[in-house]
Structures are given as C-alpha cells and as structure tokens.
Amino acid sequence: MATDIASLDTPVVGREPIQPVHTPGQLIWRRFRKHRMAVFGMVGFALLIAFIVIGAILVSEKEANEVDLQARLSPPSQAHWMGTDSTGRDIFSRMIHGGQISLIVGFLAVLFSVSLGTVIGGTAAYYGGWVDVLLMRFTEAMLSIPSLFLLIVLGKYLGKDVQTITVFGQSFSGSVGIVIVVIGVTSWMYLARIVRANVLSLKEMDYISASKSLGASDVRIFFRHLVPNTMGAIIVSSTLGLAGAILNEAYVSFLGLGVQPPTASWGNMLTSAQSFIQRGAWWMWVFPSLFIIITILCINLIGDGLRDAFDPRSQRHL
Fold first, then answer.
1. How many other C-beta atoms can be found within 10 angstroms of the C-beta atom of residue 258?
2. Residue 200: inside a domain, yes or no?
3. Domain limits for position 268
C-alpha cells in the first residue's frame, strides 16, 4: 500500500514520468548554455562592455584627449598602463572612449539596417503581388552597390565637412553619423530576404486568418504576430551584422576616411600608430588591434550560439 501511495507523487503517462514544460525562451536559453564557446563569447563581450561603460564613468573624454609632450611614446608603465601615443595621450583612456564610439557605431548601424530589412522584407511578403516585385527588385539593386566603396567615397568628400556634435556631454565628429547611415543603408538586404521567406510561410497560418476575421489591422498583424515569430532570424542576423559593422568602421577609420579626430575610435588609433610601427612603439597598434579582434570574435561566437539555439532541431540536445 505504501508503494502505491508513493507512486502517486510522480505523474506517469505510459510508465514514463511527465517532462516539465518549458517556454520557448527557456528552451532557447538551455540550448544556448550548452554551446560553451557561445557562453565564453557572451562573458567576454559582457566584460568588454563593462570595461567601456565603467571606464567612461571614471575617465572623462577630456582626460583621454589631454596632450603631454613630455610623456610622448612612453611604453606601458604604472603611470600609463597601455603607454602613450605620439602626442603623449594615454592609450588606455583612449581605448575606453574609442571602444565606446566603435560600439555605438555598430549598434546604431545594426538598428538602422534591421529596421529597414524587417519592414521591407515583411511588407513585400505580406502584401505580395506588385509590392513584392517592386521591393525585391529594389533589394537586388541595393545588393549591387559595394558598401565599403560607398562608405569610403562619402567619408572622403563629406566626413570632414560635417561639424562636430555634442550629445550628453560626449563629442562626436560629424563623420560618425555618415558611417552609421552608410553601413545601415547598405547592410539590410540579406535580412530582408530572410524576413520575407519567414513571413511568406507565417501569413498562411490559421492564427493570422483568425486575426483578420476579428478585424485586426495589417499593422497590428504585422507587428504583433509576424515580427515576433520572426525574431529568431532577426536576432541572429543582428548579432552577426554587429560584428561586420564594427569591422567596417575600423577599416574605413584606419584609412582615415571614417571617424575623424578629435573623436577616438579603435580604427583611427591604428591610423595614428602606423607611422611608428618601425620605431618600436608596438603598444600603439597592439592594443587597438587586440580589442578589435576580441570584440569580433566574441560577437561571432554569440551569433553562432544563437543560431543553434533558435534551431528547433536542436531539441534533441536537451
């Protein structure tokens, strides 16, 4: 009798214990945690964000741009943890504010491109017909434009003419806005195709037909039902796009056509270091290069983990 009573504590169905029910978010998190390199990338990126945010609180931009000619080209020491550049500015302080600019450019450019890609791809799939044809032909035309070439041209002819702006006490060269807009405008096309493919399948679902029969507007259906169910593809694309945006910013800034002084970025810090590589000032290029590599690596690892986590076939690993 005791055995029979004890057996009632564990619900069984066909002699198998009932498995706990997990929400989609919990399943995604469980799959993500099993991807060790993705967790490593997430921890590394969190430490990088903490370094930039806390450092920006402790070290002002004025201190990062302070010139000390007596300490120029000083190697790493207790006074200057990452050494100084050719004008005596502390590289550690400039790494903090340079990382702030690089991440701001990356995040805003991705936000811009994701918004464009989601709206254009989703609209093309939802309405179909001539709307789909027109938007997809426009997307294909945009794919033929080389983004780096456009970024270099606009940075060369417009970047230096735009005035420096100040937001919340932080100074930004006008070229920052140009870099953000160009990267965002030229990187939404692949996401638009992904969103279009997902919306084409989702709009035939029964719950979409039910929403239409209840009088829901197209805007409500799109943003309350279609976009949330496409969020997995959007998040993965955004993560990988962030790495590309940061790399593009560093590339054009290294060429001297992106973010302009006095605003610091990891890319233009490498530009100022290239003249001193042969003089033994290794610290001027090692630290910016190292931070760019670590940032891109961590973001790509997170993107790989999210791609596997949002894959329904990964349920077999739970």
1. 30
2. yes
3. 25-317
